[in-house]
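Suppose a colleague, Dr. K., hands you the sequence of a protein chain of 191 amino acids and asks what its three-dimensional shape might be. Before reaching for any lab equipment, you can write down a predicted structure in token form. Begin with the sequence itself:
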Amino acid sequence: RTVEFVISDETRDRHGTIIPVRSWNIDSYNKNGIVGYMHDVYGGDVSNPDLILGRGEAFIEDNKLIGRVTFEPADINPLAEKIFKKVLHGTLKATSVGFRETVRGSWGKDDEAVNGKNPTYYFGAVELLEFSIVNIPSNPNALRRKIEDEAEADRVKELTEENQRLGAQIISQGREIDFLRKAVEHYKNKK
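The predicted structure, expressed as tokens, is then:
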């Protein structure tokens, strides 16, 4: 039930911003890592604890910020189960970061200047607050990375196929037993 995502890299996002990987502070996040759906974890008018899908942790690897979520089980959070299944299916595969800037950044130079052809803001230091599974990410590279238990998922698929085969075999054997039972009944009645 654990899935990893690239949650940030140094790609210019759809808002015209870049968060340099060295700018991330993830210490506080890793003490209380949460993962939500569509950033709906801040309380708002109605607080629903099921909008927190699971425990999260973040780390930097290969100049990318990686987020790992362990989804809550279905018996305590049906929404988390639904989102987990959509992630496994590939319907949902994107993430987005919730953060606050702690040190002001700056605009790029030349074409990336605030009045340039491609204005780009480079964040200074930022603190990760949460990350969320989202329908459409701001960063186009913020996508599912791997499923830690892919081998387990493959095993579940194999077992499902084996269960279907065994189920068909049991049904067939049940029919044979019914036939034999009727045959025995028939011979008993002849005596």
